[in-house]
Write a structure and sequence with these properties.
two-stranded parallel ribbon, binds pyridoxal-5'-phosphate, alpha/beta, 409 residues, 7-stranded mixed sheet, 13 strands, 13% strand
């Protein structure tokens, strides 16, 4: 008998299952709004011109494919520090004081897993992480596989399609002191709803009072404002809270999957804010012990591209422009769908959240039975009513608006 004879089939992954249905659909006008990857105005995947340029440089200059250090190359880490912590006074102070430890991670997922393992092993106060309700489905799995427990804090108000500020602040205020809290830095997945800057101040006040340990997850840096630097506004607040002594530490996971389109290259970073240089050295030595048995050292092709993009002035400028192009197109598609629904089809529902929500996703408010009916019309989206704006383009928006109108009236 096979060793695996008793293995039961796992339940189908929600999003991958959707892709299978989409791929098997023979309707030429089918629309895929499940995918969390950028598509251009023709609905095609896009390799950023900055990435193409970096690949040309790399092809000419690369001299080896040796292993990189466990935490990634020194150059990668210097550039990450510069990208994340050199644009605000508090960030610069943290760098100067030797309080920033960074490492290359295997994109956002791998960075979160390493942070989770580190917290579970070395954080004495709590093994529980509060995550927003709802959150990216993989968050709970990543953190729980790292040996942590999770529970939800209020985040989204299903009646107003906006942030449930009171519920959120209330839940944080009643958390056990020292609990870990996961926060989406910008472009919350799946809702597209972020706290405004003054709401972040209130969140930080409670986090500080309760001495919570924040993990910031930044998977969509640049998709909120169109600029990866402007989207660091939230990080600046956390940097300042640490410098002002309101917060002793935080952790950050950052991904280049979306903002450099390096999805399959698996490149990102993690940072830990420490008390100072001596602690940074101690923590780094243990971080290496966490990473080594997981994957030994990170992949180097994508990280070399990132090094080129972040260090070559012209290519860096091209990257900023590329992020702007992606972000602008998503904003355009939000407007176009809104216009079709309200002006062409005269849909009676309020669709303002389509315009107000940020980033790649919109939480439409469509109910499960409406989603089912949309899928029957060859429009594919997850049962929670989340649509990927990246799946909309000028040639399919009319069909999409018509289908949404039909299932909502
Ligand atoms: N965090 C959030 C909220 C995400 O939506 C994603 C990707 O969808 C990630 C992290 C990590 O993605 P990756 O591992 O591809 O960087």
């Amino acid at each position: 008998e096979s060793a695996w004879a008793s293995v039961q089939a796992a339940p189908a992954d929600k999003i991958l299952g959707l892709t299978v249905l989409y791929n098997n659909d023979t309707n030429p006008s089918k629309i895929n709004l499940g995918v969390g990857a950028y598509r251009d105005n023709d609905g095609k995947p896009w390799i950023l011109p900055s990435v193409k340029a970096a690949e040309q440089v790399l092809a000419k200059t690369e001299t080896n494919k040796e292993y990189v250090p466990i935490v990634g190359s020194p150059k990668f880490n210097e550039l990450i520090k510069k990208m994340l912590y050199s644009h605000d006074e508090a960030g610069k102070k943290l760098l100067e004081d030797g309080r920033v430890l960074t490492a290359q991670g295997i994109s956002g997922t791998g960075s979160l897993r390493v942070l989770g393992e580190f917290v579970r092993t070395f954080y004495p106060k709590s093994n529980k992480v509060l995550v927003p309700n709802p959150t990216w489905a993989n968050h709970v799995a990543i953190l729980e596989k790292a040996g942590l427990t999770t529970s939800k804090y209020s985040y989204y108000d299903y009646k107003t399609n906006a942030l449930d500020e009171a519920g959120l602040l209330n839940d944080l205020a009643s958390a056990e002191p020292g609990t870990v809290i996961l926060l989406h830095a910008c472009c919350h997945n799946p809702t597209g709803v972020d706290p405004e800057l003054e709401q972040w101040d209130k969140i930080l006040d409670v986090v500080s009072q309760k001495q919570l340990l924040p993990i910031l997850d930044m998977a969509y840096q640049g998709f909120r404002s169109g600029s990866p630097i402007d989207d660091l506004a939230i990080l600046f607040k956390f940097n300042k809270a640490v410098v002002d002594g309101k917060l002793s530490n935080f952790l950050l996971s950052q991904s280049f999957a979306k903002n450099m389109g390096l999805y399959g290259e698996r490149v990102g970073s993690l940072s830990l804010i420490t008390a100072g240089p001596e602690e940074t050295t101690r923590v780094k030595s243990q971080l290496e012990k966490v990473i080594r048995p997981l994957y030994s050292s990170p992949p180097s092709h994508g990280s070399k591209l990132v090094e080129i993009i972040l260090s070559d002035d012209a290519i860096y400028q091209q990257w900023l422009e590329d992020v702007r192009v992606m972000s602008d197109r998503l904003v355009e598609m939000r407007k176009l769908l809104h216009d079709k629904l309200k002006n062409t089809y005269k849909n009676p529902l309020n669709w303002d959240h389509l315009l107000n929500q940020k980033g790649m996703f919109c939480y439409t408010g469509l109910k499960e039975d409406q989603v089912k009916r949309l899928i029957e019309k060859s429009v594919y989206l997850t049962s929670d009513g989340r649509i990927s704006i990246a799946g909309i383009y000028p040639a399919n928006v009319d069909n999409l608006a018509k289908a949404i109108h039909e299932v909502t009236t």
